[in-house]
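pinging the channel bc i need a second pair of eyes. not urgent but kinda urgent?? the chain im working w is below, pasted from the shared doc
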Amino acid sequence: MRTALICHRDNPLNRGVLPGFLASFSDLVGIVEIDEGRTGVRPRLRREWRRSGWRILDVLAFRLYYRLRLAGRDRHWSRTLVEDLRRRYPEPAGVPVHRTADPNSESTRAFLQRVRPDAVYAACKRILGPEIFSVPRLGTFLVHPGICPEYRNAHGCFWALARRDLERVGATLLRVDEGVDTGPVFGYYRVDVDERRESHVVIQLRSVYENLPAIARDLKRIDRGELEPTDTSGRESAAWGQPRLTDYLRWKRAARSA
């Protein structure tokens, strides 16, 4: 199976680990690096304003709280994870790289058509258009940190924890379509979590990266035609936004009393 990766250039976990991961079970033929600088922050804030209105102040309060209280510890944890996974999945040499500010550009489409992947693995915050996600023979896949369709969009694990929906804390293997995490579901992945001590960031990263062998297995099964999508019809479906401080404090209070 020939694969390609779409990821952000400045994400040390995705950019540093996923090329080696894909090369461990497939022929990695290309990497699309998204280099958008700081321009991606404002559109996300505008989307959150449309979703939350003045509750965006609760979102901004959590961002400040996270930066002051949690970010340093999570960065240390993430660096340790990256070091461990890079030893396990060393980056392959000689893989063509296409750097772009816009993963939906004509140049990106031309690059993917040139390297001819059977499947693309997307680890990016940008919504991909059909002119991109439909290029590979098998389609474009992502692993969303949240159980879909109940917890689509950003921070699915956080909202499952905040709502005490603990059976739906995990990750989902999806094939990309024109919606937001609405494509066919091919797999679910879970981990045991420590709600009292772990942040939502650690939990959602663990739900993906501790399940890399299972994700590789399922992608190979898709390539062989052995894995069909899960029927999710009739289930609740919701798109969630950014974490809010009030919901975070309510989650941690419930976790301590459990």
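so The chain is about 45% helix and 15% strand. and Residues 3 and 30 are 7 Å apart (CA to CA). — does that match what u expected or am i reading it wrong
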